C-alpha cells in the first residue's frame, strides 16, 4: 500500500476550503425551491434577486440559513423598510409583482416567512404553507393577495405572528385558527374577510393583538373571548358585527385598546366596560348603542380616546367623568343626549364638536341652557 501523501500546507488549505464550501452550500432541494420561488416574482426596480445565485444561500439577499445544516430558515423580504437596498435605488417603498410559489413549502425548516409591502404581489397564499411546522412568523402584509386563508392554518402550532393585513383576502376566518396556541399577534385588517369570528377564538390564550378591522365580518363578538387574559388590543372596527357589547370586555385584565367602531352593535354600554381600569383607547362610534352612558368613571379612568359618537345614546352626561384622571379626546356627538354639560375638567377643554348634534345638550361650549 502506498503511504498517504504528506499534508503539505497547500493541501491543508485545499481541504479547508472544500470543507467550508461544503458547509456553506445549501442542500440542492432548498436551492431549487428558492430558484422556483424567485422565478415566480418580478422585481422591476431593486435587483433584489441579483444575489440569488450560487450554492451559498446564506449570501442571498433576505435569506438566512441554519449555520449547522445550511437549511433555509428565514426569508425576509420587506418593501417598506429602511433597508439600504431601497435607499440605494432611490426608492422609499418597494414594488414587486408575481405570485408566491408553492415551492416555498419545500423549505420545511422555515421559521420566518416575510414577504411584506410589495403591493403588486397577487394570487393566493399557497395552502401548503400550513405544512411548514416550524413557522413562527408569517407576514404577507401589504400585497394584493386574494383567495382564502389556508383552512389548515391551525396546524402551525408554533406560529406567533400571523399578519395578512392590507391584501384582498376573502372567505371566512378558518375555524382551525383557534388551534394556534402560540399566536401572539394576529392582523387580518383591511381585507374582504366575511363570516363570523370563530366561536372558539378565545382559545387563543397567548393572543395580545387581534386586529380584524376593515373586513366584512358579521355576527357577535364570541363569548369565548372572555378568557383572553393577554388581549391588549382588540380592533374589529368597520365590519358588520352585531349583538350586544359584552360586559366581560371590562374584565379583560390587560385590554387597553378597544376599537369596535362602525359596526351594528346594539344594546346598552355595560358600566363595567366604562369603569375598566386599563382601557385607554375606546372607539364605539357608529354603532346602534342605546340607553344612557353609565355613570361609571372614576379616578382610575384614563382615556386617550373615548369616542361614543353616532349612536342612539340618550339621557344626561355622566357626572363621574369629572373624576377621571385624564380624557384626551372625547366625542359624544350625534346621539340623543340631553341636559347641561358639567363645568370643569375634563368637559371644559373640549369644543362643540365633542357634544354637537344631540337632542338637547346645553351649556358651554354649546349654547347656554
Ligand atoms: C456564505 O455567505 C455568508 C453570508 O454572506 C458568508 O458569511 C459566508 O462566508 C459565505 N460562505 C462561503 C464559503 O463563501
Ligand atoms: C372612531 O371611529 C370612527 C368611525 O369608524 C372614526 O371616524 C373616528 O375617527 C374614530 N375616532 C377616533 C378618535 O379615532
Oligomerization status of the protein chains: single chain
Number of strands: 23
CATH class bucket of the domain at 242-369: Alpha Beta
Q: What proportion strand?
A: 15-25%
Largest sheet: 12 strands, mixed
Order of helix and strand elements from N to C terminus: HHEEEHEEEEEEEEEEEEEHEEEEEEE
Label the CATH architecture of the domain at 242-369: Alpha-Beta Horseshoe
Q: Looking at this structure, what is the CATH superfamily of the domain at 242-369?
A: Ribonuclease Inhibitor
Counting DSSP H or I runs of 4 or more residues, the number of helices is: 4
- Counting helices, strands and paired strands, the structural category is alpha/beta
Shape: elongated
| Radius of gyration (Å) | 27 Å
Arrangement of strands in the largest sheet: 2-3-5-7-8-9-11-13-15-17-19-21
Q: Which bin fits the share of residues in helices?
A: 10-25%
* Spans where pLDDT lies below 50 across 5 or more residues: 1-5, 11-22
Per the CATH scheme, the topology name of the domain at 242-369 is Leucine-rich repeat, LRR (right-handed beta-alpha superhelix)
Task: Please characterize this protein's 3D structure.
With 369 residues, the chain is of the alpha/beta class. The chain has a domain at 242-369: Ribonuclease Inhibitor (Leucine-rich repeat, LRR (right-handed beta-alpha superhelix)), CATH 3.80.10. The chain is built from four helices and 23 strands. It has a twelve-stranded mixed beta sheet with strand order 2-3-5-7-8-9-11-13-15-17-19-21, with no helix packed on it. Strand 2 and strand 3 form a beta hairpin. The longest helix has 16 residues, at 9-24. The radius of gyration is 27 Å and the shape is elongated. One 2-acetamido-2-deoxy-beta-D-glucopyranose (NAG) binds next to helix 1.
